[in-house]
Design a protein that fits this description.
By secondary structure, the chain is mainly alpha-helical. 57% of the residues lie in helices and 0% in strands. It contains two helices and no strands. InterPro entries: Ribosomal_bL32 (IPR002677), Ribosomal_bL32_plant/cyanobact (IPR044958), Ribosomal_zn-bd (IPR011332).
């Protein structure tokens, strides 16, 4: 016959939850820092190539309704 497990105390639950939140917060701060360094062109550990066509393609799209 199945026996229910003992209930976890609120303090243990809160400790586990705070550890989980701290990990998520640390990861988000790292991602934000990397994004800031890329935008300011100060990144030395992240290499990327800029595709000029992707930037100019939005300008060449016409939104005039008269042409349709």
């Amino acid at each position: 016959m199945a026996v229910p497990k003992k209930r976890t105390s609120k303090t243990k639950t809160r400790i586990r939850r705070s550890i989980w939140r701290d990990k998520a917060n640390k990861t988000s701060l790292k991602a934000f820092s990397l994004a800031k360094s890329i935008l300011t062109n100060r990144s030395r550990s992240f290499y990327y190539s800029i595709n000029d066509e992707s930037f100019n393609s939005s300008e060449s799209v016409s939104t005039d309704k008269d042409e349709i």
